[in-house]
Amino acid sequence: QVRLVESGGGLVQAGGSLTLSCAASGNIFRINNMGWYRRAPGKQRELVASITSGGRTNYADSAKGRFTVSRDNAKKAVFLQMNSLKPEDTGVYYCYADINGSWFRSDDYWGQGTQVTVSS
User: Fold this and answer.
1) Cα–Cα dist 118/64, whole Å
2) 83: three-class secondary structure by DSSP
3) What are 99-114's pLDDT values in tens digits?
4) In 10 A of CB 15, how many CB atoms?
5) Whole-number Å distance between alpha carbons of 31 and 17
């Protein structure tokens, strides 16, 4: 059973910074893509940032220049460093990982979500 556990969410003032962490555990043969999604109030869940096993990153336009996604394969973890936060960044952030439990099968896993609130 694979689990993704998130931490680091909270309340921060506009212009401040916050770091989200997500650690995977369980039956893991290989972790492929990892990333962070956000569900803002009144909006659908959208990709904020992702990172491949090779380190290639992708960001939403709203996150470019302010957010940095990274991973630590030894710790089976992915991080999201968020700087210059804006009220528009408010939402529930979900950790995502595409994980192989064996050579021939991969599955998608999600964290429980962590609330990020940016006050003006």
Assistant:
1) 18
2) coil
3) 999 999 999 999 999 9
4) 11
5) 27
Q: Are 31 and 57 in contact (CB under 8 A)?
A: no
Backbone φ and ψ for 37, nearest 5 degrees, come out as -115, 155
Residue environment code for 68-84, b if the CB has 16+ CB neighbours within 10 A, otherwise e: bbebeeeebbbbbebee
Which one, of 109, 91, 113, 119, lies nearest residue 26 by Cα? 109
Print the SS3 string covering 1-60.
CCEEEEECCEEEECCCCEEEEEEEECCCCEEEEEEEEEECCCCCCEEEEEECCCCCEEEC
SS3 97: strand
Mean pLDDT, rounded, for 31-44: 96
CA distance 115 to 40: 10
- State how far the Cα of 81 lies from the Cα of 77, in Å rounded to an integer: 13
